[in-house]
Amino acid sequence: MPNIPYRDELDTEAEALAERIRARRGGVLLNLDRMLLHHPYLTAGWTELFLRIRAGQHISDRHRELGILAVGSLTGARYELHHHKAPFLAGGGTEEQYAAVVDSVPAAIANADLFDAAERAILTLALESTRDVALSPETVGAVRSHFPEPAQFLELLMSIASYNFAARILVGLGIEIEAETP
Asked: Which domain of life is it from (predicted)?
């Protein structure tokens, strides 16, 4: 059950933003949107940030989504896991990889049969960033060996950090997966 109600009645400011969100989402608002629309000013900034993160320019969708899934698993953000499965699979990830990350990020990091070195570096980056905030020199070195351009490293780290932010909102507000909403 959510910690505050989903917003369905929208004033003029919220409705204008909701229309832009609906246009991007094929005519629907997700529960996340319905919750965020309690504060249209902040939601406008949130929407812009996540549009830019998801558009990416320097890393693949598969790599970005792998980091996002790791964050969802580590933080218990089921909503994040649910909504990022399809983009991960569409980007070239596998059902087996998805299941392994959801089950245990540390075990996934150790699984060289299922994840290549670049993927394991991303998972380690997500683990350290989520749990410890600080990154070890070994992790930075491993990530940089596969993503040598500064923009690549920054995009990976910003994706992971942004979805840690999202996870804290999703879990903190108790946002439900749409199929589970009464």
From this structure: Bacteria
The alpha carbons of the chain give a radius of gyration, in whole angstroms, of 17
**For residue range 30-39, what is the model confidence (pLDDT) as tens digits?**
999 999 999 9
Both structure tokens of 128:
């350290």
CATH number of 61-173: 1.20.1290.10
Tokens 């598969």: give the residue.
Answer: 62
Q: What is the pLDDT of residues 82-136, one digit of tens each?
A: 999 999 999 999 999 999 999 999 999 999 999 999 999 999 999 999 999 999 9
Q: How far apart are CA 139 and CA 145, in angstroms?
A: 10
**Do 39 and 132 meet the contact criterion of CB atoms below 8 Å apart?**
no
Cα–Cα distance for residue pair 51/176, rounded to 1 Å: 22
Q: What are the residue boundaries of the structural domains of the chain, listed by start? A: 12-55, 61-173
Which phi-psi region, left, alpha or beta, contains residue 17 (left: φ > 0; alpha: ψ -120 to 50)?
alpha
